[in-house]
Amino acid sequence: MADIRTSLSDALRAALVAAGVDLPAGFSVGLERPARREHGDWSSNAALAVAKGAGRNPRELAAELATWLEENQPEHVAEVSVAGPGFVNFRLAPSWLHNMVADAVAAGVSSYGRQDLGQGRTVIVEFVSANPTGPVHAGHGRGAAYGDAVARLLEWCGYDVQREFYINDRGTQMELYGTSLAAVRAGQPVPEDGYNGQYIVDWAGDMPADADPRQWGRERALADQRDVLGTMAVEFDTWSSEQALVDSRAIDDALGALDAAGASYESEGALWLRSSDHGDDKDRVLIKSDGEYTYLLPDIAYHRDKLDRAGSEGLLINVWGADHHGYVARMKAAMAALGCDPTALEVVVTQLVRLERDGEEVRLSKRTGDLIELRDVIDEVGADATRFTYLLQSMDTAPTFDLAKAAAQVMENPVFYVQMAHARVCSIAVRAQADGVVRQSAHQVDLSVLVHERELEIMRQLSTLGEVIASAANERAPHRVTTWLRDFAAAVHSFYHDCYVVGSGIPPELTQARLVLIDAARVGLAVGLGTLGVSAPESM
RNA sequence: GCCCACGUAGCUCAGGGGAUAGAGCACUUGCCUCCGGAGCAAGGGGUCGCAGGUUCGAAUCCUGCCGUGGGCGCCA
Fold first, then answer.
1. Residues A412-432 pLDDT 10s
2. What are A360-380's pLDDT values in tens digits?
3. Residue A499 and residue A496: Cα distance in Å, rounded?
4. A98, A237, A349, A538 - which has most CB atoms within 10 Å?
5. Domain A410-532 class?
6. What pLDDT, on a 0 to 100 scale, did the predictor assign at position A370?
């Protein structure tokens, strides 16, 4: 079927040419969904955009376009009108929505709304990357939900996605962690700046006497992290070890490359990166005066390795917490110093979450051991609600996550509201079968009887899912899908309330058409939830 | 002091160049013969932090200021 957007765009372009407008090179017709129903189904600002360059009055030009379009109507167009300062508005016949419903049902949960933006391009999404010195905490949870949702969205849009977790399994923190475990195991106080959490006591108690505390502690922490992330269905393709980079001499190679590029120098007994040559505030230390690497150096080697694995057309996306935003400039500077394409590395900084329970703040503090583990959040709230709640807002905002509200099984809880919409349409289909309704195959059903405002609203919203997914993927903004789901679920609940599918007084052909409609709605809900990694239950 | 993000309805947040700025919660008022009322519908409520600028058009882009959060280590 012809994409409605393409056919409208082509028609507008033809109308502009017919009106004698010389289109600027690279001109693309602007088409959008008007915010207000009375402005039609699609709207174009083309006349406004070209009027000045063409020396025309925008309203008059728009009127000329509308007249031409009325005489040369694209498929499904019912009415063309001019409004406001010079918008050209299209009102479409319901037939375009009926076609879309049939397409949605045919495509199904496995492919409706898929986009071909990536064309197989490799993307390595790195997220969570918690230190292997303890459990993942609630703050990591947002990164986990977000990173995985971005990965799912990119997959849905045709990218070849790798999910990656970077393990900082060497360095100062790792030493402190090992000595803390050993001290507690021996009944001694933990060293200064050591780890104090209750989990240290628990884990030290499990540690065999002959174990290497660092090595054993690393495995213990990773197993714990993997387990908890698994309970919210976050799985990684690759777990990259910092220590392995050292062992493979990748760090020496990186040092050599930086030296060859003239990007490093010695001073005060340390080795420095000339990051200020590439946009950073100041130069940064790579090797400390005591000979130990800083965090930055292995990370540079790691990103070289990732770029190499992603290939020349590949893209790296890093999801970092707000407390790491200061590292973006130096990391990009390092990549620039090595001659890498700066657009190949994209860092998304997620703002911190304020965690509450019944309005009372729960403070996160890994150092003091006073931390809320992600495990506790999932146990209290559930995996689906945890993910959905983390994805309610833009990553640029620092939202409040109220555990009690997120856990509540009530319609005021957005995740419950959306999942309930899915369960409801599933239950209608079950009910229809129980009532002995024999369903026709979808392509035999006459959908033209679907003209109720509630039905039209479901179809209009469903028709936007593909665009929403595309923009959510492009903007790395899964919350756009969350927002769409809440709106779409509201349309489904309204339909459910006003339009019965089965029952006395419902004509058989309307029952058949509505069964197809709710099937399409089910697909839309399941696809949207799927891109967020949230389940779509058939009953609740 | 410098860097990043944010400031939209009483609260939590969408919208991030277009037309009369939206949703949920809370508040007011209606609606249960029948598919799940764990609902639906209607209503009140906003100088989009402030001041300039760019534009045919700014909540949206730019500059400054104010406020909030985070960062500014040879920790990660």
1. 899 999 999 999 999 999 999
2. 777 654 434 557 889 989 999
3. 6
4. A98
5. mainly alpha
6. 59
In this predicted structure, the answer to whether residue A252 has a pLDDT above a threshold of 80 is yes
- The candidate with the shortest Cα–Cα distance to A63, out of A43, A79, A87, A41, is A87
Look up the CATH number of domain A4-93. 3.30.1360.70
Please provide residue A270's backbone torsions phi and psi, each rounded to the nearest 5 degrees: -120, 165
Consecutive H or E run containing A229: helix A213-231
pTM of the entire predicted model = 0.95
Hits for CB < 7 Å against strand B across A residues 448-467: none
Single-letter code of the amino acid located at A146? Y
Q: Which nucleotide is nearest to A85 (CA to C1')?
A: B19
CATH architecture of the domain covering A127-240+351-406: 3-Layer(aba) Sandwich (3.40)
Structural domain spans, chain A: 4-93, 127-240+351-406, 410-532
A36 beta carbon < 7 A from strand B? yes
| Backbone torsions φ then ψ of A381, nearest 5 degrees | -105, -30
Task: Say whether the CB atom of A480 is under 7 angstroms from strand B.
Answer: yes
Domains A4-93 and A127-240+351-406 share a fold: no
Span CA (A399) to C1' (B7), Å: 13
